[in-house]
């Protein structure tokens, strides 16, 4: 008897809707009802950290011309001091478009938060549905755990998570040929790259999966073209080209119509320091060793070293993960593209100079889809809650609004607990032997080609 995943998927969506409402109510504590002449909540600065209700959505209502309803990037720039002006935002172009869309009907930051929530929430629900169809009841890890309350509307991350999970779901359907599924998934990952950059990781592992002809069910075919050789080079090239072409097609209009503003967003991220807002091992580990001082300032020497070490180590972690994946393919016959992508994501989260709290939403679906011990998942969630709450209390404490002791303890426990667990998860993902995504009896009906 076949096991249906429609019931857990439906439950995951309904519970996700409840969690998203809680997430909005949490952030709305910072919004309204009194506003200044720019539409900024008067009490925002005094409560955003102390009450742990901060969101980038509300913060960026002013400072990026969002309150002026200016379409992003077209006439923007970056100043010599590193400040973005004229409608440029610090995110890839599609995230900028989402920010603009959320602001169209808004006249203050509370309305901007409300309309942005309505825009983003369907992507969270879609992710819940897809995870339910792929992994059954394990999808509740996405729908009912603290990260969705803390981070769903901290930034514009729900759409990129949906595109990544959607790409995984497309590959798992078996409804079309492996090449076709790979190309569609690559387009989704390319769109995701234009929202936030991390789906590019999974495009790399997807290419390896297509090159090695997927798993045994994909190789059980009468298609002469796909069984002629051991590797499907044409398919891998097609998938890589589809992803790259999508990124170029989305970015090209912005680059042509507003090159300076489009380039400024990349320059801003390149110049960003691993400072007190970064939540990274660099700030909490390397900075005290180099600086020999207290406080939240960073030095040029520290910035330069982080700018060198961070990308080098990230690339090194990617190379290690890809090699492990290739060795597993040689040994097991299938390239574990989702699990190896999870390892690479852990390497990025650990070693990138900035680790924004909402990045947990990127990792959460991988904890659903790949078999991970629940004790390890629970430990990561605890560490994440510590940093997700502690860092804002620490910001408030540095401004004299809170006691420093508890805030600093929570923050450091979260930073170092999460860092240790990311190292462990890197290894666990790399060694994971069974992916829980869409075994053949759980996928929608359709011909196997």
TrEMBL record:
Subcellular location: Cell membrane
Provenance organism: Rhodococcus zopfii
Name of the protein this chain belongs to: DUF2029 domain-containing protein
InterPro entries in alphabetical order: GT87 (IPR018584), UCP010361 (IPR016570)
Keywords for the protein's UniProt record, in alphabetical order: Cell membrane, Membrane, Transferase, Transmembrane, Transmembrane helix
Pfam family, one: GT87
Coiled coil: none
Keyword flag Cytoplasm: no
Membrane topology: Multi-pass membrane protein
Tagged with keyword Membrane: yes
Similarity field: Belongs to the glycosyltransferase 87 family.
TM annotation in the entry: 80-101, 113-142, 148-171, 183-211, 305-326, 333-352, 372-395, 407-430
């Amino acid at each position: 008897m076949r096991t249906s995943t429609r019931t857990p998927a439906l439950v995951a969506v309904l519970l996700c809707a409840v969690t998203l409402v809680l997430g909005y109510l949490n952030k709305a504590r910072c919004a309204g009802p009194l506003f200044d002449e720019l539409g900024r909540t008067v009490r925002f600065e005094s409560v955003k950290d102390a009450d742990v209700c901060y969101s980038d959505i509300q913060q960026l209502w002013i400072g990026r011309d969002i309150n002026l309803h200016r379409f992003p990037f077209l006439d923007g720039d970056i100043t010599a001091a590193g400040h973005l002006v004229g409608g440029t935002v610090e995110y890839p172009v599609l995230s900028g478009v989402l920010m603009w869309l959320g602001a169209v009907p808004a006249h203050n930051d509370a309305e901007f938060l409300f309309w942005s929530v309505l825009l983003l929430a369907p992507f969270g629900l879609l992710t819940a549905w897809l995870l339910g169809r792929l992994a059954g009841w394990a999808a509740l890890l996405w729908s009912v755990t603290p990260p969705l309350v803390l981070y769903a509307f901290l930034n514009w991350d729900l759409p990129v998570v949906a595109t990544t999970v959607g790409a995984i779901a497309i590959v798992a359907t078996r409804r079309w040929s492996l090449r076709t599924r790979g190309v569609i998934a690559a387009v989704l990952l390319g769109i995701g790259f234009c929202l936030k950059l991390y789906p590019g990781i999974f495009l790399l592992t997807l290419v390896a999966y297509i090159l090695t002809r997927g798993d045994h069910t994909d190789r059980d075919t009468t298609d002469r073209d796909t069984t002629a050789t051991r590797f499907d080079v044409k398919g891998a090239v097609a998938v890589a080209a589809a992803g790259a072409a999508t990124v170029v097609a989305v970015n090209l209009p912005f680059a042509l119509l507003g090159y300076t503003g489009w380039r400024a967003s990349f320059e801003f991220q390149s110049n960003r320091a691993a400072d007190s807002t970064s939540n990274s091992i660099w700030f909490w580990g390397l900075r005290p060793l180099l600086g020999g001082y207290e406080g939240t300032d960073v030095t040029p020497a520290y910035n330069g070293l982080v700018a060198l070490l961070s990308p080098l180590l990230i690339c090194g972690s990617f190379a290690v993960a890809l090699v492990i994946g290739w060795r597993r393919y040689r040994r097991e016959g299938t390239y574990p593209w989702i699990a190896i992508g999870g390892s690479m994501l852990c390497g990025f989260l650990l070693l990138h100079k900035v680790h924004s709290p909402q990045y947990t939403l990127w990792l959460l679906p991988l904890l659903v889809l790949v078999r991970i011990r629940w004790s390890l998942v629970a430990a990561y969630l605890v560490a994440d809650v510590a940093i997700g709450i502690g860092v804002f209390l620490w910001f408030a404490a540095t401004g004299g609004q809170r006691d420093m002791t508890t805030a600093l303890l929570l923050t450091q426990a979260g930073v170092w607990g999460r860092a240790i667990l990311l190292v462990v998860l890197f290894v666990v993902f790399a060694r994971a032997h069974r992916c829980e995504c869409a075994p053949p009896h759980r996928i929608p009906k359709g011909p196997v080609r």
